[in-house]
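Lab channel / #folding
Pinned by the channel admin:
"Please post every new chain as: sequence first, then the structure tokens as a reply. Keep commentary short and put observations after the output so the thread stays searchable."

First post following the new format, from NK:
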Amino acid sequence: MQLPMGSVLRPLIVASMLMIALLPSVAGADPAGPTNFKSTVVSIEPPVQGLKVEILGGDAFVQLTAPPGVDVMVMGYEGEPYLDFTSSGTVRENQLSPAKFLNEDRYGQTVAPPQATADAEPAWRQVSDTNAWAWHDHRTHLMTGAPLGTSPGDTVAEGGIPLVVDGQSVLVTVETTWMPAPNPVPWIAAGIAACIGVGYLCWKGRSKSTYVGFALAVLAAAAGLSDYLSMPAEARSSAAAWVLPLVSIGILAYGRMRGGGTGLAADILAGIQLTSWGYGRLNQLNKAILPGDLPYWLERVVTIVVLIGGAGLVVAAVLGIVSMRQSTARPAGAESNGGQHDDGTAAPA
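Reply from TO:
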């Protein structure tokens, strides 16, 4: 009996593609990613009671929280009004500020429309109903690689964000430091452990691999959700980091209930998804700063374990398919020999 792999895989693939298509897109500018550069607020001059400014994602976003009852205006690159933290506790963005468009991607490649100029009358749009907001600001990170003559541990850039607080000029000074590369030992050890696990999966076949797939998907979903929630809504990336592992859990559960060829096909599809999830995070392994709240070593271990474990899930399922085809082919082979065993002896009547 031939396994109807095509008819089994098609609905699973279609369901996965629908889930991907329904994922929310990036809310704001380029999302934070792994980096070797860390920006830090070193001073606010003159000091403002209750004003909080911090850098998120290494050097990716500035988050400002205004004191209650105080007006805070963030000025753009040409001195124009850009963000207005109102005394009533909301945040407005000037839709005609050139900074609005330049801040849409990390390297300022978005071209502002002709009407967006520093001299234009501000066109305000409310972007937050709280007194906090995060935005990408090119004054807080390098626009190119590290300057010549610098090395890890050096301060490689300094920038300032001008504010107007209740009519008073205030300068937020930010320094960027080149951070040393991470210690590779933990994730190398995790990779070795995952390779051993892959070997075990291949030896045991499908009897254990589906349960391991569930564990890998839960790990990936938990890490992805933690990363997603660690950033404010306006700075988050796509929800794919945690939704796709949940899709894998659903596929594995469906395959487990159906069993047979459906179960093996589900293992393959889920394994491919998990391997892709880990592959998409490989740049975590050699970057000093990661955009999440989990310990960095744990993020890297989860990435390498899910990557290699997902590949192991695929291998184990393929071996299961080979074994199933061989077992279903043996009786047909015996009958084709005229009622004789493979060794030529007559079969009992």
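NK: The helical segments are 5-21, 98-102, 185-204, 206-229, 240-258, 260-279, 296-336.
TO: also worth noting, Residues 296-336 form the longest helix (41 residues).
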